[in-house]
Design goal:
- There is one protein chain.
- The protein is of the alpha/beta class.
- The chain is built from 13 helices and six strands.
- Strands 3-2-4-1-5-6 form a six-stranded parallel sheet, with helices on both faces.
- Helix 2 (56-61) links the parallel strand 2 and strand 3.
- Helix 1 crosses helix 13.
- The mean pLDDT is 88.
Length: 299
């Protein structure tokens, strides 16, 4: 049987505010690449400002995949991401381009590389039944089926409560799919924590100035308040503001605080990646971080 080389894959991860998106776009230019987004909110349509999607100019300059692929109230599992990302990578390789996975949702990257499948099998009839169930009743069901999981969730977090009930009721897949066969290099973009926090403050101020509240209001007019993207950092706080639970100053402060906590969790997650190559995006690097990554990847 002839030997088949594994597709080469460049991965660029890191916490919010580290600058990975710009570095990935420049690396794509240098490597004639296309980017596969590993961001759990950018995949939803109409969630533009709050997810910090690449702007139109960047997406014209560098093809991006797995952005705007699902409606905000559409379920999108780890298995969905893994399948969609693998398809995108296959297409990029077939075009003779370099696939670059970039994002801060570490579990998505892990699913792609290690074959995670997201737990229980799907059952559309059961999901429809659970979606019709009042949230207090659904939460009580989870408390009965899985008390520890219920205790770890907010009683208003319908998305995770629903998944918890599904995972408790449905049969698990007998075995995960075989891991994707990629020859990958994993770069983790970092910066001193103080710099990341400063960038987070600037990013939140910019999002609010661009219309995060207005975007959230438009989303709430079309989709349930407990759909997955509206429960994410930024949208969740903006929804509270619209309900009168926060004033303008508290809104900005709460988003910044929640984003800092999220960045800490991301740093912890990426710190456990074996073989990850850390780059301090603020350290002097001859030619810049993207040039260093591209040169390393080519050799």
């Amino acid at each position: 049987m002839p030997f088949e080389a594994k597709p080469r894959l460049l991965i660029i991860g890191g916490p919010t505010g580290a600058g990975k998106s710009a570095i990935a776009a420049e690396a794509a230019r240098l490597l004639d690449g296309e980017i596969v987004s590993a961001d759990s909110v950018q995949l939803y349509r109409h969630c533009d400002i709050g997810s910090a999607k690449p702007d139109a100019a960047m997406r014209r300059a560098v093809p991006h995949h797995l952005i705007d692929v699902a409606e905000p109230d559409q379920p999108f599992t780890l298995a969905d991401f893994r399948a969609a990302a693998a398809d995108a990578i296959d297409g990029i390789v077939a075009r003779g381009k370099t696939p670059i996975v970039c994002g801060g949702t570490g579990l998505y990257i892990k699913a792609l590389l290690e074959g995670l499948h997201g737990g229980a099998q799907s059952d559309p009839a059961l999901r429809e039944e659970l979606l019709r169930m009042p949230l207090p009743q659904l939460y009580a069901r989870l408390q009965t089926l899985h008390p520890a999981r219920a205790a770890a969730l907010h009683p208003n977090d319908r998305h995770r409560i629903l998944r918890g009930v599904e995972n408790a009721l449905l049969p698990k897949n007998a075995a995960p799919p075989a891991p994707a066969a990629y020859d990958f290099v994993f770069f983790i973009i970092a910066a001193p924590r103080g710099i990341i926090y400063r960038r987070i403050e600037e990013r939140v101020d910019a999002m609010l100035a661009r219309g995060l509240v207005e975007e959230t209001k438009a989303l709430l007019a079309r989709y349930p308040a407990d759909c997955k993207p509206l429960m994410s950092v930024g949208y969740r706080q903006a929804a509270m503001y619209l309900r009168g639970g926060l004033d303008a100053e508290a809104l900005a402060n709460e988003i910044k605080k929640a984003t800092r906590h999220y960045a800490k969790r991301q740093i912890t997650w990426f710190s456990a990646v074996r073989g990850g190559i850390w780059i301090n995006a603020d350290a002097p690097i001859t030619g810049g971080a993207a040039a260093f990554i591209a040169d390393y990847f080519k050799h």
